[in-house]
Amino acid sequence: MEAPKKPHAANNLANDLLISILTRLPPKSLCRFLCVSKSWHRLISDTYFQAQLPPSMAGLFYHFKDQDPSHCWRINKEYISTLSYHSGFIDTTLSFLPYTGKIQILDSCNGLLLCRLWGSPSSNVFICNPAAQSWTLIPNLKLPNFYSLFLAFDPQVSVHFTLVRLQPNRQSPCLELEKFSSQTHSWAKFQVSTEHDINFLRKCRGVYFNGILHLLAARKYIVAIDLESMVCRRIEMPGTTSLIRTGLLGKSGGSLHYAVKEKREMKVWMLKDYERGEWVSKHRVRLEVLFYILGFHPDMDIVFLRVQNILMSYHMNTGELKEVHTLRQRPIQYWSFVFSPFFGEDALANKNGV
């Protein structure tokens, strides 16, 4: 991805003290100051300024699928704010989108969401930014399923996003990859060598960082695809994990993490040496409750769990298990997406507000 070419507004400001003060404000106050003036809005939205801000998790989008009294499938969406963040200035209901119907979130990456309309015969998908209330429609995607579609966005590298579609080819040791760039508004096709055939886990969650898309494969390894060079490598999974289907891949503190549930025990590993594929055991705990792993906090040593119908945060440093939110009961299927808002400039075509 290319670096933004526009000149940084922050570089033109003589008062570095103002930048120093604003970057220390809580997100709620920073949102308010976007409306002070056009110059402040340009400053706070600038890529340079955004790079000075510490990453901050706002909450989780939580989907669940169940049946209504007539046994018809339906999908519901909740947004759960974390206790450390006030998200009142972020439209987490996605009401700014000009689409009617139930919206299903397919992926989340650094403040952008990949979505579609649940139950719609249309093959359209759209990318939106709940903080900026902006969106872009990607029409007419021909996909066997939407689980093969991933979003890649790193605002510290480029304002542009990338969509990735993967299709394993069982007849050859190559992965068919299609990449959509918001910069060119076009798709490009690639054949990515994987050495052996790949069987990705169904509904596998992609983890994108440092320009690389990471995915869990069914044979106890991670597939890491560099979206710039189109080079693929394998990273062996830690330990003797036999229950990889109960595991979750994520990023926290700038490192790749993996957590797995084995009966009532949770094990957490961190990829200490990325180049050598060296994992270290970070935490191991037995919880005297039935739980499911939902996600990692991107900045803190916290794992989010579902315990019955309660969202809990497990703090690895202290061993403390805290209640965060009461969820709706007995979902048949569920998905969760950690959300960290992005307030800077994006490349989405349609924008509300300023």
From TrEMBL:
InterPro entries: At3g26010-like, Beta-prop_At3g26010-like, F-box-assoc_interact_dom, F-box-like_dom_sf, F-box_dom
Annotated F-box domain residues: 13-53
Organism this protein belongs to: Dioscorea zingiberensis
Family matches, as SUPFAM superfamilies: F-box domain (SSF81383)
Gene3D superfamilies documented for this protein: 1.20.1280.50
Database matches in CDD domains: F-box_AtFBW1-like
Protein name as it appears in the record: F-box domain-containing protein
Pfam families cross-referenced by the UniProt entry: b-prop_At3g26010-like, F-box
